[in-house]
Amino acid sequence: MTAQNCLRILREVKDAAFATVDETGMPQVRIIDVMLIDQEKLYFCTARGKDFYRQLTASGQVAITAMNHFFQMVRLSGRARKLSGQKEWIDRIFEENPVMNNVYPGESRYILEPFCIADGQIEFFDLGREPVFRECLTIGNARKPQKGFFITDSCIGCGECHRSCPQQCIEAGTPYTIRQDHCLHCGLCYETCPVQALERKGI
Amino acid sequence: MTAQNCLRILREVKDAAFATVDETGMPQVRIIDVMLIDQEKLYFCTARGKDFYRQLTASGQVAITAMNHFFQMVRLSGRARKLSGQKEWIDRIFEENPVMNNVYPGESRYILEPFCIADGQIEFFDLGREPVFRECLTIGNARKPQKGFFITDSCIGCGECHRSCPQQCIEAGTPYTIRQDHCLHCGLCYETCPVQALERKGI
């Protein structure tokens, strides 16, 4: 899986969930169209009257997710920045998404402002295949997160984690190892280990 | 539209986006199954190893959204509380959602914890009909939010807002009035009014 393909999934699903934090620190989420994908950048827009617009211009921090019909989920976290050249961007967005004219006919389209996410962390999770598959990716200059459970050298090789794993993604060895790309991050191994040999990173 | 029907939409779509705020104040969002709808309560579950679980047990504040094939969007904001009687609830959830056994076979299901949202604010937005339609509803003891743009008595009746509205949902009068149930909340009237007669509430 590549970051570009993850952005394509968001564009294909199109109606993705965009989450922000409001001025009171509460989570907010709404369905927003992914309007364009270009290189490794994601473009969307919103109207200046909306609380979403205020949250984007305040911190710009946004988390996006969508799932396609194959049960492939993409999560993208990053900072959205407002684009200069509003008219040109909105015109391009309407050109590639003509249905927008039904909602914002004529000149009313210019109440919309274009935003771009150029740097961000991506989590791809495929629940449609067995075993499940996950991968962390990035766009732009975002650093790649290390997430998951890891078995340390304290492992005594008893195999409790291996037997408990819902996805059977823990391999025997010294120490035992978790196949990170097939892990649910459920934490059952972490709870089951009799000697607390597991550590939890970034989740 | 009723709150119950909004919850049914979330259950029918099933894979909804659940947004939280993490310990660093950043927005987080992921796809989670809506497992049960009972009365005016929504039930879901997550594994104890996940950051989602930590965020739910820290503040419990969650915002949920999903859109169905008719372009009807539901947003639900409220506090999720962890349910006692974990085994009974997880068993009921697996009974009504047997596909869960593929991901968490056998006893591994008990790494999951059940949560319920019993009080919350709902926004229903129907982009699939013309004109667009929106309504605010609540479940439990949540207070109903007043959101939108409102034309005050400072209105001079020039009709600029009426002419600018993308959805033509502003009616002439003294003052002019916005048909709130057909408003996009785009804010074009707010910007267009030559005498700043509009006020913005809750958005």
TrEMBL record, chains A, B:
PROSITE patterns: 4FE4S_FER_1, 4FE4S_FER_2. Keywords: 4Fe-4S, Iron, Iron-sulfur, Metal-binding. Residues 146-171, 174-203 form the 4Fe-4S ferredoxin-type domain. GO terms for molecular function: 4 iron, 4 sulfur cluster binding; metal ion binding. Pfam families: Fer4_21, PNPOx_N. Its cofactor is [4Fe-4S] cluster. Ferredoxins are iron-sulfur proteins that transfer electrons in a wide variety of metabolic reactions. PANTHER family: PHOTOSYSTEM I IRON-SULFUR CENTER, PHOTOSYSTEM I IRON-SULFUR CENTER-RELATED. This is Ferredoxin. It comes from Wansuia hejianensis.
